Amino acid sequence: MVKRHDTSAEPLDWKLWAGILISALFLYLAFRKVDLGRVWEIILSARLRFVLLVTLATFLQFVIRAWRWALLLKPIKNTGFLNRLAAVLVGCAANFLLPARLGELVRAGTLARAEKLSGGATFGTIVVERLFDGFTLLLILLIGLLGTGFPGEWRSISGHLRTAGYTLFVVYILISVFLFGFKYKTGAFLSLLDRILFFFPPQIRTRVIDMIRNFSLGLVLLKSPAQWGLAIVYSILLWVCGLYQVEFTEMSIGQNLPFIATFIILSMAVFGVMIPSAPGFIGTFHLSVQYGFIFYGIGKEEALSAAVLWHAAMLFPTVLFGLWAFFYLQFSRLRVSEPSAL
């Protein structure tokens, strides 16, 4: 009997290895010409209370995401806060452990199972959520650029950040326009897609179209000004927590930068994690944060130590939170499935 070769995992394997190579390159650049003994000494002497505050700010972000998500899910179903929070925690932990930001799919699937929702519709709400995040991040970058005087030798970084900001702004606008049109012309889009996929068997074609139709249900457009205002407030609070992650990180190593520095450093960190990398954003995060601190006059060893501490203060607690959330959901599902006593 001839065994068929399973190629389903090959694209993921290719992306995983490419991400590992990219992470290795960025780690090399981050650790090049750095006194590792000095880095280790700074990490060991870091003020633990500020590292714990970074973790607290991270957890507050999860809570705020769960609150904001309720607004986007409400037209579909009133969901439980603990189920939303658990799904956020599982998804964020998966983003640290899996390549290609698969945590977003894990997050959507986790809540869909817990609340008996369509996975496609749930993922649609996450897409809308990411648009809120994107525009808030661009606002943070704009404030950072306007409030920072770039010396001559760093003008290139200012130019790169502006270019990245303009590019992302155009991309977010185009995505928003497309999603808006898709939401209100779903029938026409699905009819066109059905004709494009004519060469697929009817069962597969129907399944794909049903998945995309469910996805359109999650593209929720908030109906009242109060909902829009609340979603914007949540988005700003969420990223303010990110700014304080930077602030607490620098305080943990005894540095005292102007608060405007947190706007640029956070923006560089986010752009760093957008680069394909190994699971956990290893390397790309560290080099981006390191250069953000170096720009404000922090030494290479101190800057790298800050990046390592910030990453660790997010990574390990997030994975632990995710494990707790996973077992909480499993226990809840088992408890619901138990037959009631007669």
Features:
about 350 residues, about 0% strand, mainly alpha, globular, 13 helices, disordered N terminus
Task: Describe the overall structure.
The protein is mainly alpha-helical and 342 residues long. The protein is built from 13 helices and no strands. It has helices at 10-31, 36-44, 48-73, 81-97, 103-115, 119-147, 155-184, 186-196, 202-217, 225-252, 260-274, 284-295, 300-337. Helix 3 (48-73) packs across helix 4 (81-97) and helix 10 (225-252) crosses helix 11. The longest helix has 38 residues, at 300-337. 34% of the residues are buried. Residues 1-9 have low confidence and may be disordered.
| End-to-end CA span | 53 Å
Q: How helix-rich are the residues, as a percent range?
A: over 70%
Element pattern in H and E: HHHHHHHHHHHHH
Mean pLDDT across all amino acids = 88
Q: For the report, how would you describe the main beta sheet?
A: none
The counted number of beta strands is 0
Alpha plus pi helix count: 13
Question: How do the strands and helices of this protein lay out in sequence?
Answer:
Elements: H1 10-31, H2 36-44, H3 48-73, H4 81-97, H5 103-115, H6 119-147, H7 155-184, H8 186-196, H9 202-217, H10 225-252, H11 260-274, H12 284-295, H13 300-337
Helix pairs in contact: 1-12, 2-13, 3-4, 3-6, 3-10, 3-13, 4-5, 4-13, 5-6, 6-7, 6-9, 6-10, 6-11, 8-9, 10-11, 10-13, 11-12, 12-13
